């Protein structure tokens, strides 16, 4: 597990599959090889009124860590991240009288996974309740664990195949954590931030 940067890529009047095809050709032209598929999903639950102050629990899964369930509890101004095993999903099912899933908000980012040298690149089609919302590009640089030590290299790599759409600054979530050791929970936080934005967008009106 290295440092991961997540960024949105504009579709520019293309469909989801067309955009993924464009990016796949660009990264393949650099010498990348496809290594299967990936999936990141997020389900959001809200607490029942009898629990008092409303709490929100985001439950996320990442195919890179198949044995781990990530959850982020939001309670007022506090945010508590957890990394647990698969039993957490069963726990949420048993707590259905206290926490209910928000309807029409299940988010997914899935698509092809590429490897090129020390980089792993994932091209994700984002859907909210099966409605296409946009494209997320995830790039992981595996030899590094401190964002500040590899940000310039990652920025150059991203701009190399994303062009002007490549990021010029680190993701907002990482900007105050550039000197810290990176962990899988940091990737989950980045996905949650993007999913939250996508959920607020009007539907594009077509499936990917």
TrEMBL record:
GO process terms (BP): regulation of transcription by RNA polymerase II
Top-level taxonomic group: Eukaryota
The keyword Transferase is annotated on this UniProt entry: no
Pfam families for this protein: Med20
Record keywords, A-Z: Activator, Nucleus, Transcription, Transcription regulation
Keyword presence, Chloroplast: no
Subcellular location(s) of the protein: Nucleus
Annotated Gene Ontology cellular component terms: mediator complex
InterPro entries for the chain: Mediator_Med20
A GO MF term: transcription coactivator activity
Sequence similarity: Belongs to the Mediator complex subunit 20 family.
Physiological role: Component of the Mediator complex, a coactivator involved in the regulated transcription of nearly all RNA polymerase II-dependent genes. Mediator functions as a bridge to convey information from gene-specific regulatory proteins to the basal RNA polymerase II transcription machinery. Mediator is recruited to promoters by direct interactions with regulatory proteins and serves as a scaffold for the assembly of a functional preinitiation complex with RNA polymerase II and the general transcription factors.
Complexes and interactors: Component of the Mediator complex.
Protein name (record): Mediator of RNA polymerase II transcription subunit 20
Organism: Callosobruchus maculatus
């Amino acid at each position: 597990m290295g440092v991961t940067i997540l960024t949105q890529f504009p579709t520019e009047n293309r469909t989801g599959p067309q955009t993924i095809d464009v990016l796949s050709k660009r990264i393949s032209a650099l010498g990348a090889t496809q290594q299967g598929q990936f999936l990141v999903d997020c389900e959001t639950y809200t607490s029942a009124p009898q629990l008092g102050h409303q709490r929100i629990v985001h439950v996320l899964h990442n195919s890179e860590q198949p044995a781990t369930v990530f959850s982020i509890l939001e309670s007022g101004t506090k945010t508590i991240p957890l990394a647990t095993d698969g039993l957490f999903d069963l726990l949420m099912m048993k707590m259905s009288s206290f926490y209910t899933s928000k309807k029409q908000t299940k988010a997914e980012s899935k698509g092809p996974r590429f490897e090129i040298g020390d980089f792993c690149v994932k091209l994700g089609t984002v859907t909210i309740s099966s409605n296409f919302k946009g494209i997320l590009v995830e790039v992981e640089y595996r030899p590094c664990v401190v964002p500040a030590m590899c940000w310039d290299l990652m920025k150059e790599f991203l701009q190399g195949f994303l062009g002007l759409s490549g990021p010029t600054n680190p993701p907002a979530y990482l900007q105050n954590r550039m000197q810290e050791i990176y962990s899988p929970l940091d990737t989950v936080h980045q996905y949650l931030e993007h999913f939250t934005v996508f959920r607020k967008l009007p539907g594009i009106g077509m499936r990917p």
